[in-house]
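Batch manifest, entry 17 of 40.
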Amino acid sequence: MYGTLANNSHILSLLRQGLIHIDPFRKQNLKLAHYPLTVFAIRLREPDGKWRRRKEFDDDKDPFILKAHQYVVVEPAEKVVVEEGIIAKFIPSSNIIEQGLALTAGRLEFPFGKAAERLRFGLKNQLDIPIEVTAYQQVAYVEFYDLRGLKRRPTELTPRDKEVFSERVASERKHRADDDGVYYPDYSDD
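Output type: structure tokens
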């Protein structure tokens, strides 16, 4: 049924049709209506206000120590991309409740990810003591909503959307984003 939360059978169908992409995807991890996302990299806010990668679990399997009340930005190991008409929403994994972690997450829609933008979440230690974040720890789930069968109006990326997308492209991949059409400057007033 279009316009509702996709269940595991529908998610598999959307994957086969190329309407959603999860990389890496492991069928055994698929739940009734969501797919788990795990921690790959952690970004810290620098004095200049930029969020820079300071931990990648591929390079260093040691836990990251999240200080009391510290907030970090997490990049999941899984890349999620959706095609037009599909929305992905993110929810916290229940296992972070007992750890005292809070997750800030949102949603994504087409064309996010088409120019190698990286998904990010906020993760905060709510406790007065340090907490370990481990390699590939599950912190969130992605849910998919299939809106293709519903009447909808076309949408356009706002300047804010374009700025957010651009900030989430790794600097070594910015040239690809520039060639994709999403980030062309508006020269209509020239």
